[in-house]
Amino acid sequence: MAIPISRAARITRTAISPRLAIRIFVNGLVDTSYNVGLMDTPNATSNDENLPGSPFLGKKIGNFSDSWTVRWISTTGSTNDDLVTAGRKGAPDRLVLVADHQSAGRGRLDRTWEAPHGANLLVSLLLRSVPQFPHALTHAVALAAQSACLQVMLKAGVEVAVELKWPNDLLADGRKLAGILSAAGPLGTSVNSAGESCQTPQFVVVGLGLNVAWAPREAACLSEFADNTDVDRDAVLGLLLKEMDVLLALDQTQLHERYRVNLSTLQRDIRVELPQNKFLGGRAVDVDVDGRLVVEDSQGARSSLDIGDIVHLR
């Protein structure tokens, strides 16, 4: 039985689970012939103290966790595209690329949108320690971003719920605050926890677009919850990377449980808009270890979803 959408229902974007997104990418359905541009000449390494000409990462690189290499670029098409290309060329683990502007940013329903130059945190992380379920890395970035935003708001003295919506959107006050997209490199052979040989991507790239000083209509940004004062993007990135160090030290079971506990979609009535104008109504009851959302309808039948436009019903 379908559940009607109320006027208070909130909708973000057509959601694709990280598992499906990575599978599509690995299967070669995405063009990866991108121009790396300034990535060929890094603007920062762990030995750089300052980044001349960078309005974003002008502080000492030591402000960030030593386990990450942060590079900055003024403008690019997509930081995810750049890091995928860099990864194929042998770029190291835990490489971070930050841009002040993206000309090919993707948002809800795969629509392109552009934030004003220098307004938001546009960042991608390249990760080579890929677990058996690669989407866990996407979940880690979502959790780290949630933690960073909560700490920023706590410092500003405000109490605003920052919720994680399946699969990896952040909501503040019920409005979209951040979105995450993932991609993967070519497959390689690894050994899983049972000692069995398996195929996993050689690396995963996770990109985050976090609204800091600007947001599209009906979305949210961090500065509005801090009395419209300037929010330091350096500080937000530093908090995110610090939390990533903690999350990446967890085993896959622990990380999945952390994601489940923080996923606000669970135990809520939802409507899922599916391809070909189909929809499913029910209650989100669980999320599988492989990232699929489990929805139970009014008859008790359960469906596991990879894709769908999720509406939280109130």
CATH class of the largest domain: Alpha Beta
Q: How many helical stretches? A: 5
> Under the CATH scheme, which architecture of the largest domain would be assigned?
2-Layer Sandwich
The radius of gyration is 19 Å
Please give the alpha-carbon distance between the first and last residues. Answer: 17 Å
**What is the mean pLDDT?**
80
Percentage of helical residues?
10-25%
Query: What is the H-and-E element order?
Result: EHEHEEHEEEEEEHHEEEEE
Uncertain runs are 1-14, 24-62
Beta-strand portion reads: 25-35%
Tell me the CATH topology of the largest domain. BirA Bifunctional Protein, domain 2
Give the tally of β-strands: 15
Would you kindly provide a written description of the structure presented here, covering whatever features stand out?
The protein has 314 residues and is of the alpha+beta class. The chain has two domains: 15-262, BirA Bifunctional Protein, domain 2 (2-Layer Sandwich), CATH 3.30.930.10; 268-312, SH3 type barrels, CATH 2.30.30.100. The protein is built from five helices and 15 strands. The strands form three sheets. Strands 2-3-4-10-7-6-5 form a seven-stranded mixed beta sheet, sandwiched between helices. β13 and β14 (302-305) form a beta hairpin. The longest helix has 21 residues, at 135-155. The protein is globular. The protein starts with 9 loop residues before the first strand and ends with a strand.
